[in-house]
Specification:
This protein is mainly beta. The chain has one helix at 77-88, and strands at 3-7, 12-16, 26-32, 45-46, 53-54, 64-73, 95-101, 104-112, 119-120, 126-135.
């Protein structure tokens, strides 16, 4: 089962993969751009009068575009109109996309990159729509991790697959000495 939430700071939209759909449930039908790797932004420069190309000085990734295709069943056409207003209110607002699945809970900051276009179905109590979200930072972040100090020493380990610059909060008496190994 998957749970997808989009938080605008003033509203929280929650989607699941639950079937069958009940009234008031928004269901994710497909999510693209979340699980794949990002390609490099750089391009190789051709070697003049030689085979091949030069390597770029470094490789970096661009932003990530995530599309959440969803469906909603409402109790009335009025409730569907309210849902449309909630979806349209996401425009031009900083958002947080959170996906909870077999990988755990991971989030990314984003914004709505395209019109949601909630298309009502013939019953006028259900709609299908796509939320196209642009995440300028291509990385997905897990929940904060807390490490306890023992004997005035706190050992911290980065279990992720990206460089990390931790924020450190110290409570009580103490001081911080940072070092980089490796």
């Amino acid at each position: 089962m998957m749970r997808v939430t989009i938080d605008s700071g003033t509203d929280l939209l929650a989607f699941t993969t639950v079937r069958p759909m009940n009234h008031g449930v928004m269901r994710v039908t497909k999510i693209t751009g979340w699980y794949g790797a990002k390609g490099a932004r750089e391009q190789a420069t051709d070697r003049p009068q030689q085979d091949g190309a030069y390597w770029p000085s470094r490789l970096t990734g661009g932003g990530r575009t995530v599309t959440v295709n969803a469906a909603a069943v409402c109790r009335s056409s009025i409730q569907l109109a309210v849902l449309r207003d909630r979806l349209n209110a996401l425009a031009c607002t900083p958002l947080t996309l959170t996906v909870e699945d077999a990988h755990g809970v991971r989030s990314a900051d984003c914004w709505l990159a395209d019109d949601t276009d909630p298309t009502p179905l013939p019953t006028e109590q259900a709609a299908v729509f796509a939320l196209v979200l642009y995440c300028p930072d291509p990385f997905k972040y897990g929940r904060p991790v807390t490490f306890a100090a023992s004997g005035s020493v706190c050992r911290v380990r980065n279990e992720g697959n990206a460089p990390t610059w931790p924020s450190v909060t110290v409570s009580g008496h103490g001081y911080i000495i940072a070092s980089r190994i490796g």
